[in-house]
Amino acid sequence: MRGSVAIWHDTSSNGAEGYAPRVEVHINIWRSNQRKPNNHFDLLDIGLRFKEVRALRSLSMSLPFEVGTNQVSDLFDVMHDASTVSAIFNETLTPGTKRDNGNCFPVTHTEKKGTQFYVWRCPMDVLQLSTIGASGDRGTIITISDTFFERLKSQVGDHYVRLRIKVPVGMSNGFVSSTAPKDSAFLSTISTSEIVEFRLNERRNFSPELRVKLEANDCGLIDISAIHYFLIRDMGVEMTQSHTGFRKMRRLEPEMWERYLTDCEGFSPHDMIIYHWASVGSPPSGSVESFNALATFRAYYTGSLWVYVMVIVALGAMGSAVQSIGTSLLNSFFEGSSLAHWGSTVANVLLLAILAAILWASMRFKQRKS
Predict the structure, then answer these.
(1) Potential cystine with 343: which of 22, 27, 139, 330 (Cβ 3.0-4.6 Å)?
(2) Within a 10 A sphere around the Cβ of 297, how many other Cβ atoms?
(3) Residues 233, 235, 239, CA angle at the centre, nearest 5°?
């Protein structure tokens, strides 16, 4: 399934006119180095830095796959740490004391001083999850309610919220697709080609149901000032190509990201590389209408060794059985003649010829496919 994330908003009818909601979007996709389908996840972190909220009543995000409430979490408490918040924004920042009943804290720049923005807690009671789409093309809409945005208006400045969505490994989603060799059962090491493509507000990739919903409710896609997209992969995975040159690539700093990945099985900041793509609004609108980033990778994983061993044993047993049957048949055929003692040798020659023919035929078939 292919799809695009969509972000739209609902504004107050009697709100501040002339102050259209505006946001900067941060996306982190963490690809796990674990390929087991059970209890292993990729991580999709979505950060929203609101530049203007005076007229904002609610905000919705549509994901091109299904998630449940147990897969969505708020990263407010994780971010209340100088090392972590500095790693996320790649600046030297300091989180201040929590305020507003522990639901908010200011972030200041160590050198520039002054409050840069406020980080807000986004608990589940202000989030509404709903499903959209037909079978095989179902997605999830996450809506942040008006209750949350009313809290933001108590502080003047930029406001930030960051959510994490756990995407089970192996679950069909609109971002990741992979192709494994058809003969993977016969291989001890598997080379898998992976495509990771992230799309934001690409209308042509919206589902029909989402198009109808946006039109019926007269909802507008939110004004985006900039998009920063980060793809984090294990160092053992090789990037083969990308749609365009990335803005920056670096190795994760373990001491800075350790806290951020607490309780995230399969992720080690000691062995990961981060790729950064960005799109910043330019005149005259100063907005980013849509965003698309594609990269391909070659990943190597250990195959099912027990299957590999069983296949080898089965092939050996089959060869032995064929030889025994051939020997018996030839001995029976030559029984009583002077050629009886050649039965075993002839059987081995025939077996070798059959295997050579199979190998030749498979190579010809592979050449024709290529």
Answers:
(1) 330
(2) 21
(3) 65
φ, ψ at 164 (rounded to 5°): -120, 135
Q: How many CB atoms lie within 10 A of CB 291?
A: 22
Question: What is the C-alpha to C-alpha distance for residues 241 and 170, in angstroms, rounded to an integer?
Answer: 23
3-class secondary structure per residue, 232-276: EEECCCEEEEECCCCCEEEECCHHHHCCCCCCCCCCCHHHEEEEE
The whole domain housing 319 covers 306-369
Sign of CA dihedral 192, 198, 32, 255: positive
- Residue 92 near residue 45 (C-beta atoms within 8 A): no
CA distance 367 to 303: 25
Q: Would the CA dihedral through 172, 63, 29, 221 be positive or negative?
A: positive
Give CA–CA dist 243/177, Å, rounded: 16
Asked if residue 352 and residue 243 are part of one domain, the reply reads no
The whole-number average pLDDT for the span 247-260 is 89
How far, in Å, are 101, 168, 329, 330 from residue 198 at the CA level? 36, 17, 63, 64
| Measured torsion, CA atoms of residues 95, 22, 274, 63, in degrees rounded to the nearest 10 | 110
Total structural domains within the chain: 2
Judge whether 271 and 251 are in contact, CB under 8 Å. no
Instruction: Judge whether 1 lies within some domain.
Output: no
Given a cut of 60, is residue 241 above it in pLDDT? yes
